[in-house]
Amino acid sequence: AKADGRGVWRYFEPAMNRRLQERRLLELDMRRALAEGQFELFYQPIMDVETRRVKTFEALLRWRHPERGLLAPDLFIPVAEEIGLIVELGEWVLRRACADATRWPPGVGLAVNFSPVQFQSRHLVAQIAGALCDTGLSPGRLEIEITENVLIKDKEATLAILQSLKALGVRIAMDDFGTGYSSLSYLQAFPFDKVKIDRSFTCELDQSRKSNAIIKAVASMCDGLDMTVVAEGVETEGQFEALQREGCSEAQGFLFSRPVAADALPALLCALNGA
Ligand code: C2E
Ligand code: CA
Ligand code: CA
Ligand code: CA
């Protein structure tokens, strides 16, 4: 007579324990990785559509895991957010990226991704001001990319943070535009300088008249709002030509380059901009 509630629980327990255990191992692993310098930044160029030269490099985090190889951020950032490690990891990213950017030509900007969890830290503005001050990077070269998830939580507090960042001279970009629920109302309420149209719109550009119309409308709206429009995920010349036609000012994607390690940037700049 084991067919009672406990029997049922016993059945599920091992699987649940295993998942918790894996999570706890990943946690330990990640803390050690940060201490031992296993994280790396790759950079992907964002191109000026008109001149087809590099305008900005976006920093994209990678984890060079000793056993599992090079890991993409989707595999570990959600856990880092869950355990709060993203605040420390995000500060490492920012400082590393600002330091790297001081070695680029001064006309080239730096874009850094921020997690909603970082916006819950009271020290965010001081953290960013400190990184700029310590590395000597001019604030006008730094762009902070956030998704609308940042804006959902506490609108007043977030607006205050964004205004402080603007006062520092840093620019703000809305990432993954068009994938959330209230992107338009957020454009009105928050001081964005730039809108990054999500890859899901760009990748249809060749085949679907709808995507062309959406991109054209977003570009013309942003023009009226004095915001720059970037299309993400540009993979073909056809897509690039359509973007040009529809009035997008910047473009990012594998067509120009995949994300590359920091020490490959001088050669990449040469190849893309010409010597
Ligand atoms: P994201 O900010 O939207 O970054 C763009 C992602 O699209 C990158 O993936 C990039 O490699 C990929 N991508 C760029 N061009 C193309 C293209 O032409 N085709 C396709 N198929 N993909 C393209 P990645 O590097 O794996 O980053 C994934 C996400 O992880 C990022 O999305 C961002 O949300 C997050 N992330 C990356 N680095 C950081 C970081 O330092 N901090 C935080 N909080 N999040 C980060
Ligand atoms: Ca981004
Ligand atoms: Ca994006
Ligand atoms: Ca994304």
TrEMBL record:
It comes from the Bacteria. One of its GO terms (molecular function) is catalytic activity. Residues 23-273 form the EAL domain. This is PAS domain S-box-containing protein/diguanylate cyclase (GGDEF) domain-containing protein. The chain holds residues 426 to 700 of 707 of the full protein.
